[in-house]
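Lab notebook, bench 4. Still working through the backlog of constructs that have no structural model yet. Next entry is a single chain of 143 residues. Request: give me the structure tokens for it.
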Amino acid sequence: MKMYSMLLVCCMLSGIAFAQSKEEKAVAAQVESLRKAMVDADKATLEKVSDEKLSYGHSSGKIEDKTTFVSNIVNGKSDFVTIDLSEQKIAITGNTAIVRHTFSADTNDGGVAGHVKLYILLVWGKEGGQWKLLARQAVKVPA
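Model written out:
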């Protein structure tokens, strides 16, 4: 019985440790909106979740502003067939959120099928009660 009680306490404490705050859940929802909008080439959502001063960095070193980022997704230059996110961690300080995750995607850029696996850093800022993507940087997963 004592072992059962100890196991129950450990389970409860681990649940508390992994619980997300209200703000972390809001950021996670925005990350999911971004992911879905990139797959769906949804211009309205991409524009809604992105800050006007967005700095979107690719693993190749190319940097895009908001207009270029949205345009490249919508016109198929950057065509994501699937995007899977894993190992996501969210840290919030005031009105800034930092999100890190592993990004695995099947692509069809310019009609050429491919696959990418990247580590991503997203920086979100809270503006008027809404989390907006301020910056994104991708790096290649080391071999």
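Notes after review: Residues 83 and 105 are 4 Å apart (CA to CA). Residues 3-17 have pLDDT under 50 and may be disordered. Flag for follow-up if needed.
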